[in-house]
């Protein structure tokens, strides 16, 4: 799996097998106009961003990891879930 971070117009962290699939998921779940600025990110980078966006006092680490590693979960973060 690869990880794609979309920055504009709305933030999203998406897990997909290909760049094309990531763009389709962005259009489907985040913004139908598509993402203008994005980068492929490493698994470690994506995992840290994902973990930082969750409250460790409310969510167990095992649950977060299960969600992150689940191949059926393609949109990991969106604008409303991210800390700036």
From TrEMBL:
Annotated protein name in UniProt: Uncharacterized protein
Classification lineage: Bacteria, Bacillati, Bacillota, Bacilli, Bacillales
């Amino acid at each position: 799996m690869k990880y794609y971070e979309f920055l504009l117009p709305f933030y999203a962290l998406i897990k997909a097998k290909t760049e094309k699939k990531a763009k389709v998921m962005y259009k489907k779940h985040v913004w139908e106009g598509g993402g203008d600025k994005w980068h492929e990110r490493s698994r470690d980078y994506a995992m840290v961003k994902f973990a930082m966006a969750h409250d460790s006092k409310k969510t167990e680490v095992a649950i977060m990891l299960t969600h992150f590693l689940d191949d059926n979960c393609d949109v990991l973060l969106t604008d409303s879930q991210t800390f700036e």
